[in-house]
Structures are given as C-alpha cells and as structure tokens.
Design brief:
75% of the residues lie in helices and 0% in strands. With 391 residues, the chain is mainly α.
C-alpha cells in the first residue's frame, strides 16, 4: 500500500486527534501554581516544579528524534500514552518536593515521546504537496485545548479539586490509545522506502551553524519569547487574583481564538512581506498585550489585552519559524527546526522557574510583567536587525 495522497486520510485524522488530546493534557496545568500552593512545599520551589517538565524535553528530544522511524514510532506513541496515564494518576498521591520533581520529569518525558513519535508518523500520512495545509491544521489542534480547557476548568469545574482533575485527565488518553489499533494495521500494509534518517548535520557541525549570527539571534529571541509566553500561561491566574479582577480562562479562550483566526486569515500574507519586519511588529503587539495587563484597571482593558496578545503571539511564532527556514543553509534546516523547539523547551523551563522565584521573593505582577515587556522588546529589536535577511 502506498502513502496516502489525500490529506484527510485515516492516519492524518487519527494523529491530529492524538495531538489534540496530548495538548489537552498540558492545558489542564494552567493553574498548577495554585495547586502547588496547597502542598507543603516552600514557594521558592514552585516555579522550578512547573518548569522542570520542559527539562525532559530538552534532554530527550534530540535523543528520541534521532532514533524514531516509521517502524517504531507507533510503539513509542503507545509507550508515551501509557507513561502519561501513570503520571496523571500520581499527581493526587504526591505531596513532597523530590517525588513531585521526579513526577514532573516523568510527565515531561511521556509528553515528548508522544509528540516526537506523532510528528514522525505525521510525515508518513501527510502528502508533501499538501504540507502547508497539513501543518496549518496541526497548529490549530495544538491551540484548541488552550482555548477551551482553561475556561472550562475555571467556569465549569471550579469546585473540583485540581488533583482530581489531573486524575480524570488520564481518561483523555484512552481514545487515542484505541485508535492506535486500526492505525497499526494500516502501517503494516504500507510500503516504506529506504530510511532517510541520515540527514541533518552530516555535511557540517553544530558549531558551523551557530557561528552564523543571524541563526544565533533568532534562537535567542525564540527562547526569550517563550520564557514570557510560558510565564503568562502558568501565572496569569495568580496575577489576576493579585489584581482582583479578570477571568484567566476567558482570557485564554479569547486570545487563543484570535491566534487561530490570525493564522487562518493572515497566514497567506506571511510569505509576501519581510518576515523579520512582520515578526518584530508582532512581538511589539505581544509586548503591548502584556503591558496592558500590567497596568489594567478594568475588565475592558484586560479583555482588550487578550485580543492584542492573541494577534501578537498568533503571528510572531509562525513568522519566526519561517524566518529561520529562510536564513538557514539547506544542510542545517532540519537542525535549526529542532533547535527552535529546544529553545521553546528552554523558555518553558526558565520562564516559570524565574517567575516563581520572583513571586516567592515578594515581587508583584507589575514588575514581573514589566520584565516580560522588556524581553519582548529586546526580541523585537533582534528581529528588526534581521531585516532583509536571506540565505
């Protein structure tokens, strides 16, 4: 059986469902900081416990990606789903620092196994000539949980203990697990060609790549952007509580909805103009959204910030990834795509860890958000320096 030519084949649809449930498993942790405040763990460790989830991805992603193939990826997905269920069930039973630290590392490892293997399988079921549309759909699947889950938890399940919510979330891993059975039958009937895994840096090395200032600047900017983004996601509920107004669940629903619309409506325009200039402008919008939250005195400002924030994030991230593709040498494009993912992981570790320490040290939301605005302006400046950049 040959690889499918239709985008909406069973494998592609199944893997998108898998991605949807995998990101739902992350979105339920948007109020994890509040959960940690209920445990007998010193506050200075809370940010680290949030961010350490990403350490597993930082370490394991390069190792796993190099070893995944079309033949073993399905088993890897099954393993990752099983570990995810174990991790989610354990949150209700772990209350001390070291066990919770290990649990977060386990959960992070499970997530990166599922996602890395799913991406490998998506390459099998997504026709190359429809990759643009395919990646657009995948992106929407990754965003939908952030639009729905926080609002649902804040407004429908507010009375349910968070530990119980994590336990119930384990049930979300069951549907994709069952879908793996027919997917495995399809995989066995497909005719795979020789492995093309031996790409990447065979013709060069990491140092040759990182000696290019443009690549290094873009990687640094990506890390800074996701340090701010992750801090906003995990601590917005804490900030709104300290300000005494705003529904963080509704904020994320609005912001994520705007992100999705922005990518659908403006996505075709991203390739027509200078990506660096557009990325700089998008990051300034992101910064404006964060600034509006830092000085908000009314709900009107708060929800207007959600729209500005959504437009900024929704356009900045695809533009930065597209820019990296444009400025990378062909032999380093695969490597740099993975390095951009690594910087996302680094941001998801550094941002919450430092934000947690700042809150534990007595800083309020205004100065913390002010630092976030400064980092985004710095990132925008780095993007502006890449104006007219081409390979």
């Amino acid at each position: 059986m040959e690889a499918p030519r239709s985008l909406f084949n069973f494998g592609f649809v199944t893997l998108n469902i898998l991605v949807l449930f995998a990101f739902s498993n992350l979105a339920v942790f948007f109020s994890f900081y509040d959960f940690l405040n209920q445990l007998p763990i010193p506050p200075q460790w809370h940010g680290l416990l949030i961010g350490v989830f990403a350490v597993s991805a930082l370490i394991l992603r390069p190792i796993i990606s190099a070893r995944l193939t079309s033949f073993n990826a399905l088993w890897a997905v099954a393993l990752g789903l099983g570990l995810t269920v174990v991790a989610l069930l354990l949150y209700a039973h772990v209350e001390s620092l070291l066990p919770l630290l290990l649990l977060r590392l386990l959960h992070g490892a499970a997530y990166v196994i599922v996602m890395s293997a799913s991406v490998t399988l998506l390459m099998v079921f997504m026709p190359p000539e429809k990759s643009g549309q395919g990646f657009g759909i995948i992106t929407i699947m990754t965003l939908l949980p952030y639009a729905v889950v926080p609002y649902f938890l804040e407004n429908v399940l507010a009375a349910v203990p968070q530990a119980s919510i994590y336990t119930y979330t384990a049930l979300l891993m069951v549907p994709p697990a069952f879908l793996l059975i027919p997917l495995s039958k399809i995989m066995r009937s497909m005719d795979f060609g020789p492995s093309e895994a031996a790409t990447g840096t065979a013709s060069g090395n990491m140092w040759d790549n990182l000696r290019q200032p443009k690549v290094l600047m873009l990687l640094i900017a990506n890390g800074l952007v996701f340090s701010v983004f992750s801090s906003m996601f995990f601590f917005l509920k804490t900030f709104t509580t300290m300000y005494g107004l705003g529904d963080p669940g509704f904020f994320f629903m609005v912001a994520t909805g705007v992100m999705i619309v922005t990518r659908i409506v403006f996505g075709p325009l991203f390739d027509r103009f200078d990506k660096a200039v557009l990325a700089a402008g998008s990051l300034l919008l992101f910064a404006l959204g964060v600034f509006m939250i830092s000085v908000m005195e009314s709900l009107v400002v708060f929800y207007a910030a959600a729209v500005v924030y959504g437009v900024g994030v929704g356009s900045a991230t695809p533009l930065m990834n597209g820019l990296m593709f444009s400025i990378s040498q062909p032999r380093f494009r695969g490597l740099n795509t993975n390095l951009m993912l690594e910087m996302i992981d680094a941001g998801f570790f550094v941002g919450p860890a430092l934000c947690g320490l700042a809150l534990a040290g007595g800083l309020g939301p205004a100065p913390i958000l002010g630092v976030g605005v400064a980092l985004l302006i710095l990132s925008a400046a780095l993007m502006a320096l890449l104006k007219n950049s081409k390979l």
